[in-house]
Amino acid sequence: MTDDARETRHGPGGGIWLAFVPWVLFSLITQHDTLKAAAVIALIASVVIAAPSVAAGRPKMLELGAVIAFVGFTVVAFVADPSVTAWLARYARAIAALLLALIAFSSLLFVPFTEQYARESVPRQFWSTPRFKQINRQLTLLWGCVFLVMMVSHVIAGAIDTRRGNTIFNWVVPIILIIWAVKRTGELSEAA
Questions:
Q1: What is the distance between the alpha carbons of residues 182 and 139, in angstroms, rounded to a whole number?
Q2: Exposed, middle or buried: residue 152 (CB in 10 Å: 0-12, 13-18, 19+)?
Q3: For 39, which of 15, 74, 87, 110 could close a Cys bridge (C-beta 3.0–4.6 Å)?
Q4: Which of 33, 44, 20, 48 minimizes the C-alpha distance to 113?
């Protein structure tokens, strides 16, 4: 490897963390407010975040997926029967985590979603290298698996439906998973 290749991170750039903001807002707001409020705020955030990449002609799958997901949540929150919205509010985090997993895994069929962000911080000369491709496939798979485990944790929280269950399975477990995944992302990116 050249010195330039060793100094270049092959993992996602900083923009990926911004792309997760609507999902985080949705999780936080569903805990403290209505599903309608959470869906609308997450939708607005996702549109604002996706707009620059769409306007530049380089839409990112994670950002577009967020817009579509929160349009869906918003429509259901406003038109569904109250019993449906009550169930949806209980399992909204699980559904959001499942949607994130689907976005991650489906992006492996085309361009891994982490690669779209890695291109923001990696020189173009490395984009087609086998190492760059391999690391981003690994990172996308890692995050997809984290989202699946988070989904299971959120389902458990919804099924238990207690304050302690909510704290452990909607917050503690997902936060530990995210911290681990962020650390692992950094390790994989630096190993390149």
A1: 10
A2: middle
A3: 74
A4: 20
Distance (Å) of CA 41 to CA 26, 30, 72, 177 = 7, 11, 13, 25
In sequence order, what DSSP letters do the residues of the chain get, joined into one string? --HHHHHS--S--THHHHHTHHHHHHHHHHHHS-HHHHHHHHHHHHHHHHHHHHHTT---HHHHHHHHHHHHHHHHHHHS-HHHHHHHHHHHHHHHHHHHHHHHHHHTTSS-HHHHHHTTTS-GGGTTSHHHHHHHHHHHHHHHHHHHHHHHHHHHHHHH-SHHHIIIIIIIHHHHHHHHHHHHHHHHHHH-
Provide the 10 A C-beta neighbour count for residue 7.
8
Cα 99 to Cα 106: distance, rounded to the nearest angstrom: 10
pLDDT band at 2 (very low <50, low <70, confident <90, very high): very low
Residue type, 66: A
Q: Quick: pLDDT tens for 130-165.
A: 999 999 999 999 999 999 999 999 999 999 999 999
pLDDT in tens, 12-63: 656 889 999 999 999 999 988 999 999 999 999 999 999 999 999 999 999 9
